[in-house]
């Protein structure tokens, strides 16, 4: 986006967050641990810029991943609208497992991106990514609702044509004929 007055870039509305990932012990003979999204919290400068271990015991491990910028885009106002009009508006986080251990002694789950857009989450799910959600805080929900109120334009509902005016088609999509006249001629009629 550029300012109409001077052509300089206009910053998008954004919030910076940190993602908390959790590894928990599970009772499964093929897999003893499972990774999942634990929380999305407001970023604080004291978090630093690198992932850090918050908790490590025999049943659970938690990692903090700071510095994810969540921007609101004008072109996705409908995606934010669909989120904030649900019973529980949320953040969606896409995460992937490390292929080789780079952050810790063994591979950990690394968040890739965070969004508030219903459409983004749907695209990632369609692409078979690991996508999880956590409730957004009331102040974030209000911030997104304000954005939606300013930028989302509800599409006008279109009147559906009555079914009686639609052309008839056979099962192959070809026009079908319906005769309302009396059957005449042919074998067996008479």
- What is the C-alpha radius of gyration, as a whole number of Å? 27 Å
Strand order of the largest sheet: 2-1-4-3
Order of helices and strands: EEEEHEEHEH
Helical stretch count?
A: 3
| Helix amount | 10-25%
- What would you call the structural class? alpha+beta
Principal-axes geometry comes out as: flat
The chain-level mean pLDDT equals 87
Question: What is this structure's SSE topology?
Answer:
Elements: E1 14-25, E2 33-42, E3 52-56, E4 60-71, H1 77-84, E5 90-97, E6 109-115, H2 118-126, E7 130-135, H3 138-151
Antiparallel strand pairs: 1-2, 1-4, 3-4, 5-6, 5-7
Helix pairs in contact: 1-3
Features:
single chain; 190 residues; alpha+beta; four-stranded antiparallel beta sheet; three-stranded antiparallel beta sheet; 32% strand
Description:
- There is one protein chain.
- The chain is built from three helices and seven strands; from the N terminus they run ββββαββαβα.
- The protein has about 190 residues and is of the alpha+beta class.
- Helix content is about 15%, strand content about 30%.
- The chain is flat and about 85 Å long.
- Helix 1 packs across helix 3.
- It starts with 13 loop residues before the first strand and ends in a 39-residue tail after the last helix.
């Amino acid at each position: 986006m550029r300012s109409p007055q001077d052509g300089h870039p206009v910053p998008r509305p954004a919030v910076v967050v940190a993602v908390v990932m959790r590894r928990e012990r599970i009772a499964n003979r093929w897999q003893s641990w499972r990774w999942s999204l634990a929380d999305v919290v407001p970023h604080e400068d004291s978090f630093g810029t690198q992932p850090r271990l918050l908790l490590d015991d025999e049943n659970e491990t938690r990692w903090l991943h700071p510095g994810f910028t969540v921007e609101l885009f004008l072109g996705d106002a409908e995606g934010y609208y669909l989120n904030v009009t649900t019973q529980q508006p949320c953040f969606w986080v896409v995460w992937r497992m490390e292929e080789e251990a780079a952050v810790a002694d063994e591979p950990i789950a690394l968040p890739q991106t965070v969004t508030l857009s219903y459409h983004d989450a749907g695209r990632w799910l369609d692409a078979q990514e690991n996508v999880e959600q956590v409730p957004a805080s009331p102040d974030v929900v209000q911030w997104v609702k304000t954005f939606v109120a300013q930028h989302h334009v509800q599409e006008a509902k279109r009147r559906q044509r009555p079914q009686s005016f639609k052309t008839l088609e056979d099962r192959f999509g070809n026009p079908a004929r319906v005769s309302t006249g009396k059957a005449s001629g042919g074998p067996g009629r008479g």
